[in-house]
Amino acid sequence: MTNSTATDCESAGDPQTWKEKGNVAFKNGDWDEAYRCYTKAIKQTKDDTSEKAVYYKNRAAVHLKKNEYNEAHSDCTSALDIVPNDPKALFRRCQALEALEKYEEAYRDARQIHTVDPGNKAIQPILERLHAVVQDRLVQNAQTSNKVAQMFKYAFDIEVDKEKRETAMNNLLVLAREKAGAEVMYKEGVVQKISSLLKIEKNKDIFLGGVRIIGELCKNSVERTKDVLQVVGVPWFLDILNCKDEAQVNAAQYCMQTILNSLSGMENKPDSKPQPELCKENKMEIDTLLTCLLYATTSRTITGLARDSLMELITRNVHYSALDWAERVVEIRGLHRLMEVASELEEYKYESAMEITPSTRTIASVCLSRIYENMYYDEARQRFINSVDEYVKDKLITPDIESKVRVVVALTTLLLGPLDVGNTIVSREGIMEMILVMAGTEDVLQQKVACECIIAAASKKDKVRSIITQGVDILKRLYQSKNDSIRVRALVGLCKLGSSGGTDASIRPFADGSTTKLAEACRRFLINPAKDRDMRRWAVEGLSYLTLDADVKEKLIEDRDALRAMIELAKTGDQSAVYGCVTTLVNLANAYEKQEVIPEMIELAKFSKHHIPEEHELDDPDFVAKRLEVLAKEGVTSALVVLSKTESQNTKELISRVFNAMCCQKELRGIVVQQGGAKVLLPMALEGTEKGKKQAAQALARIGITINPEVAFPGQRCAEVIRPLLSLLSLDCSALENFESLLALCNLAGVNETVRKRIIKEGGVPKIENYMYEEHEMLRRAATQAMTNLIVSPDVVKIYEGSNDRTKLLVLLCSEEDEETSMAAAGALAMLTSVSKKACKKVFEPESWLEVLHQLLANPKTDIQHRGVVIVHNMMRSCKEVAEKLIATDIMELLMALSTIHEEGKEKVREYAGEALKAAEEWKLIKKPGEDDEDDVE
Hints:
By secondary structure, this protein is mainly α. Helix content is 72%, strand content 0%. The protein has 56 helices and no strands. The longest helix has 33 residues, at 123-155.
């Protein structure tokens, strides 16, 4: 009956019924239902009546409850458009405006309420509060306005002294970072002034200052951001980006990222994400930004540095599903443009050629890879492949050689990025044959690009076999070339084919000794100062394959000249050199992923006559430790810090692996911290591949174990490192990762209350407690030690005072056989009972509480005995009820014995035992020595 009536009401369009339902839901605190009902009422009321104003007001009240202040402001305004000066609508809008920190507008509404309803007592305190805030802001704004006016006078006058103008622009930048300063400058038309100034400004510092001010004005303000885009437009930022000065490119890139952040609700933090609703509201502007970035990537008039920056912006943001950039790139034929960039070579001299840097194609490959990774379903991935296929076919239709060369270069870039896509295209009929034909020609450019493609294609075993069969002779012939650039590429091709057996010492595709000869050839290219950086980069890539062979690793680690040359190359930050350098370091450190060896599986493999991989004797832990020590002394940490600026998450994973391998050696952790390793590990532990984050987090844990956290993670980093460490307290992590994380958290919990609060906020207490009851003795000990430091926090004490068994379990842990665990649990219980009467009462909860106290008080180890007597002392001091329960047992005899003990080192035990007895005397539970009971006197 009720359901049919509700349906009839809805179909009949009865807004009043929906309002009443909304009122019931509102009173019950069901905000979502209330919102739904009021929305129905609004939609079903076509005319702007006073009733519709009520529905808007009611929905505004829901928004206020949900802290949706912009929506509340909008609904109140709609109500006031129908019924001007309605006190309730004004009151709620005033609340919303105050929450949005629009104090002047809120004050205006408050005054209006007072005017139309002078007897309204609820508005009086709000009116007084807002009056004070507005007055303060008026004074502050007046001061800020004066400062801004003064700085404007100097900064934008070309005739003023250079130093005064620079100082003025820097001061304006500082003011732009303050909310009041940004508002004043924005109202005074600073955007237009900067836009006009930068057309003629020659001073680099003033120019950059102006660009950075625009970026600060856009920060966290959709309104100002949209105004900036209207005044100057995205092309203005692209013009600034289009230069060869790295600082200017970075400033423009930062501005564009800030614009996107403001439009999507992001912040410049690793874990910040766009807000879907805000993205929907600003879809047009966000879409325009992506379109401009993509179209600019293929512009023939921009610099290589600018092109790289544009692709980095796309790479950095394409994985956010709320932005929906990945699929949009395919929709607007953005892949064709990126493939065009991917096909570019510095050797091209045509008028149609783009300017690129040595890193451009590497950045393009990372960008393509990131886009493909975010195609979350098969249909989207197929569209990506179809788009690439279309690009290849369009190029191959034309008969000219340039188109074929471009296709091969683009395929090489794909094989370095989205490998699956690259392999799919290479496997198309005739593609590999075309590449091999190009390698066999006499044209140097064709030979070069074909060599590079063969190297990139030799990643899957089936491809390797095919290339060994068809291409080795071609590569050997090319290695005899007089052109060094051809020789080094052919050499790398042979290196990659020769290392196809991986770390398995039993597989040798070429004759014995071939890999060491190839390594020596790579070394000659690497250490020769006459060879350019590109040659050295290829030489390192060759070594990245050959160093899977332990013999090559040992020869390289003893060759200090080659090592230094490689580390110096890494320090240049050349993105095209990143892969080779990092992979070589991973191999030297044996930091690659190893398959777990299960003895039963080996026996099964032997029985079924399957091949069993063999590990080389030179890959034993002692050899690896020696190699890591050499690398650390040669400054590899500094190189890794530079290389970590890459946008490739896979490369960051490799860097994390090397850092983690180094941090495995206690004596190297100090070097890692000194040279900035801990600083770059933090963001890598928060964002990247799952394995990469885990490796970085474990490296941070190892650093936090042996180095004072305040030194290893100074300032805010002490709090930031907590989340990565807690991520290791998971069933997906190994026992070693759990253990190291607990040790590091134990040290961090001892730093200060701020850090302890952060551990609690991140959900650390239940995660650590889970391991206090683990069967694994070391994990149980480490977790208990961490809790001992955490329990100093009043917030943790409150948790233990709650309705739970935490204190009971802590008491039971005091009786652990492992002395370290027992000591830690007793220490935690001693601190807990010193500040909490509730905890003292909870000690009696386990049935074996007396047995536990006996074990502590009679323990032969002084430290444990000391903690036990402190617990009993705290309990005796807490309240008479607890003291009576203790006195009713034989604890008194133990205390009396301990109060007379005179062993060396047990002074504190004697002192606390005596204090506990005094507490019993004060509660009148025992008599003072020599005191007689009055009842005994005749």
